[in-house]
Amino acid sequence: xxxxxxxxxxxxxxxxxxxxxxxxxxxxxxxxxxxxxxxxxxxxxxxxxxxxxxxxxxxxxxxxxxxxxxxxxxxxxxxxxxxxxxxxxxxxxxxxxxxxxxxxxxxxxxxxxxxxxxxxxxxxxxxxxxxxxxxxxxxxxxxxxxxxxxxxxxxxxxxxxxxxxxxxxxxxxxxxxxxxxxxxxxxxxxxxxxxxxxxxxxxxxxxxxxxxxxxxxxxxxxxxxxxxxxxxxxxxxxxxxxxxxxxxxxxxxxxxxxxxxxxxxxxxxxxxxxxxxxxxxxxxxxxxxxxxxxxxxxxxxxxxxxxxxxxxxxxxxxxxxxxxxxxxxxxxxxxxxxxxxxxxxxxxxxxxxxxxxxxxxxxxxxxxxxxxxxxxxxxxxxxxxxxxxxxxxxxxxxxxxxxxxxxxxxxxxxxxxxxxxxxxxxxxxxxxxxxxxxxxxxxxxxxxxxxxxxxxxxxxxxxxxxxxxxxxxxxxxxxxxxxxxxxxxxxxxxxxxxxxxxxxxxxxxxxxxxxxxxxxxxxxxxxxxxxxxxxxxxxxxxxxxxxxxxxxxxxxxxxxxxxxxxxxxxxxxxxxxxxxxxxxxxxxxxxxxxxxxxxxxxxxxxxxxxxxxxxxxxxxxxxxxxxxxxxxxxxxxxxxxxxxxxxxxxxxxxxxxxxxxxxxxxxxxxxxxxxxxxxxxxxxxxxxxxxxxxxxxxxxxxxxxxxxxxxxxxxxxxxxxxxxxxxxxxxxxxxxxxxxxxxxxxxxxxxxxxxxxxxxxxxxxxxxxxxxxxxxxxxxxxxxxxxxxxxxxxxxxxxxxxxxxxxxxxxxxxxxxxxxxxxxxxxxxx
Length: 830
Fold this sequence. Notes:
Rossmann fold; Alpha-Beta Plaits; nine-stranded mixed beta sheet
């Protein structure tokens, strides 16, 4: 590659790396002497080469050069002649291109990762689910550890140091409005930029998760510093990484300012060993670098570098269901047989800080890594004597398994548990006991423990009814009130360090009554078996027997009962339970279509299925849900759809064709199915980017282009949607519509517009006239409709259209396209 550049532009200024023949030997170096050993090697071996570079620079053959000591290399830019002259030196091992080694942004030709990177804005600081999942609040409030005394370096795209949730933990904040950025910030591309900034937002998001305040960060008491190694496009080059690691070891030339941990939320190809010496130097200096595994899953051997190196801590991503995120890179590594990734941490829909005081949700192992870094800061804060290997072992030993076997090359030792990890390094008090009701242990019961400072910590009993909490010594209160039992409280529980206090809880069943009845089919009056009976807002549930009978015992109070049976509308009734009374409540359920709701938004963590579910429930329609969590493995087949009378496909940002589901839809419709497809990008992807068969042959549509979402949308007068007037992005909606899709029936087709934008373009289409199928398409996401009543009306009218009698034949005026030449004023008659 370098030779090709030299031949193509011999007089140009080609960026290159000089690898010196001599390397530093750190095997016997003491930690305090590592930097001195590295610098001595660089100075002694590079002196002659630098003199040569100075001569070439004076001759105009070298534009600039930058020597390193963390690795014995020199980065330079110069002509082909200069490169040839330097390569001939005996003290130079080789000369290579100063190549791009990583990118913060995903490849533009990867459709899955590009959609995965779409972010949703958030209104303000709220605790991220990931911070809660790893137990960080339990560390702060239960164990009294917040990361104080530990410094984290963010090696990324920079950080917006003025963000309200970051400025307080920035090490350059000296207090009283005084700031010193020296030794706390470095920009490798332009070192003269002395004030932190972040043009891309990635580093600010990462910093927030590691050390942000107001609930967004794992270690809010830790301090952070930052080095930017990416250019304005998010590209990372070898020389900038060397410069970044070198600065980390001695910020502003002072080793005493070195951080304890370095967050590296970036990765390159797994085989790339370019930075092995840098990582070795950091380890020798007692600095712990942590690396994102990469987002190239779900295939094996996709672990990125430097996460792929021997003896480096690599972090994969888990999702909110405690499953491995589909995109998280897998092992094994091409460079070592060690477990890769080592552990996983929350990395989907992570809320954190963004530049200019904003907040947003990001996905990726980039988001998982700062969870682990923050947890490590908590560990070091609790026990500053821990070394790198000890921390790795603790993280592995306390991780929560999320697979059948562990460790493995997918999720390592499991999902990060900061609370268990930190508790293992302290001498906490232990409060435990068994929760019983009517003499039996009660599983899955929440026990709330209030700390001396008033924080509430929630613990859940195991299958044996046991709870256990590791806490600071002090006086605590405890409470529990599972449904159906009287509230239990106790206070003044004194806990002592290193000792276990047992406090069992005996709950008393609340007095109440029973509701019972029979569930029947409204048309036949036959009893319905296996009907699911639930009580809104409670865990109470039962099913009807073979005679359609049910009975539920409830505490006194007012409740709403719901009866759910396949192919029947929901039955709902309000009941009042009084003391020792028996209430009779029968249900007569009307028939309903068997509905499947396909949620295509979850695989990129922007599900909007709740809006559909709420509308269907308001209409008393039960439904099954199919959630696509994995874009390659979870897409339903035609056989999965065929049992359903109607399928509703939600595509908030993608389309069916995006997931390769065109044949699935075509086969389902071809078999006489009924389907509603809704999404603001469906027409763009399936009607323009890659025209899909279902779009062309079944919907018979032509994509017209984007439409402004500020327009009013009206149901077409001659369709089932007549009389519906709606707007998008109202306060009751998902507010996620950016550009709706305008489409039109193909000339000669029987497809008709079902909705119109105010500018006259079709906002929706209806197909299936004189066909065995029915298909309704919305060029906007149902979730974006401003009013809930309008959302419900659209679904209700769609289901009515699906249920209406099939038209076997008819007539429609379908003019051919006109392409005639006429002079001004001439009249053409057809």
